[in-house]
Amino acid sequence: MYICGKGKDEYLTGEILIPATTDSKYRTWKTENHMVMSWLINSMTTEVGESFLLYKTAKEIWETARETYSSSKNTSELFEIETRLHDLRQGELTVTQYFNILTRYWQQLDMFEIHSWKCSNDSILYKKIVEQKRTFKFLLGLNKELDEVRGRIMGIKPLPNIRDAFSEVRREESRKKLMMSDNLSTSTVEGSALYTHNSSQDNKSRKGRPWCEHCKKPSHTKETCWKIHGKPANWKPNRARNDWETCVNAAATSGKNSDTSPFTREQIEALQKLLGQVSIPSPAAPTTAEQHTSSGFGEGDWQC
Q1: What is the 3-state secondary structure (H, E, C) of the chain?
Q2: pTM of the model as a whole
Q3: Which of these, 49, 51, 238, 256, could form a disulfide with 44 (CB 3.0-4.6 Å)?
Q4: Are the C-beta atoms of residues 271 and 281 closer than 8 Å to each other?
Q5: Alpha carbon 127 to chain centroid distance?
Q6: What confidence tens digit (pLDDT) does each residue in 274-301 have?
Q7: In Å, how far are 101, 117, 131, 178 from 123, measured between CA atoms?
Q8: Contacts of 219 (CB under 8 A, 6+ apart)
Q9: Are residues 161 and 129 in contact, defined by beta-carbon separation less than 8 angstroms?
């Protein structure tokens, strides 16, 4: 390929004849011939290239290397390539990677296909048969998630060539990847929203206190909220705290007005100490309807 790109392939085929040493073109031929020889030898391994150092022309090196190392008649190598092609499936490969591997094996097989056709039409028909088989091989090795596009291609009459089939399958693969990424993004957003909602509920219900989602106030739930259901019929205000505060305040007031009080200051202080040691008995367990008063809120303290 490199030599053809440089326009020097005639030195390999012998199309350029060796001019006479007295010819003015001989020096040019000699320079270009040695240049092509150096390209050929440098492309070989050291062990192989050493055996071609004493050759005189690029054509001799090319023909000898082709006869010695050509694989066109190596049936063992042909069998190995056919075996790899038979067992090849897409698996974890992308469609592009799978197709490129198949193409490399097919190119190696083409090197063994050396036929002399008597009729050019037979050559064209044979190439169509080979391409159809390769299209079948490509579709056969695809993964199951591409069954839909595989069936769609098989239903086209006439069957598309291998390049068109690959292009269609690759577009379907890209579409499926895009859909899967969209579904993954949606699931991530939903999971984040659920986590945020649960975290908010946990914060509202921290320390075991109930929380009303209707009035956004603590100490009760939506099922017992007075703004929705009204006060229960058997509700009674809890006056224990109010009675205790009234008693203490009355004693303190009596202490200030010692002239009209029947108790001395010492007696009032002793009474206050005595009242401070007395604990108010806790009421019976409240019912569901009375849960609003269990936290010490009276009717005047309700925050709805």
Answers
A1: CHHHHCCCCHHHHCCCCCCCCCCCCHHHHHHHHHHHHHHHHHCCCHHHHHHHCCCCCHHHHHHHHHHHHCCCCCHHHHHHHHHHHHHCCCCCCCHHHHHHHHHHHHHHHHHHCCCCCCCHHHHHHHHHHHHHHHHHHHHHCCCHHHHHHHHHHHCCCCCCCHHHHHHHHHHHHHHHHHHHHHHHHHHHHHHHHHHHHHHHHHHHCHHHCCECCCCCCECCCHHHCHHHHCCCCCCCCCCHHHHHHHHHHHHHHHHHCCCCCCCCHHHHHHHHHHHHHCCCCCCCCCCHHHHHHCCCCCCCCCCC
A2: 0.48
A3: 49
A4: no
A5: 41
A6: 766 554 454 444 554 444 444 444 444 4
A7: 26, 6, 12, 43
A8: 209, 210, 291, 292, 294, 295, 297
A9: no
**Residue 284: C-alpha distances to residues 2, 217, 289 (Å):** 101, 25, 13
- Hey, what amino acid is at 227? K
Strand partners, 211: 218
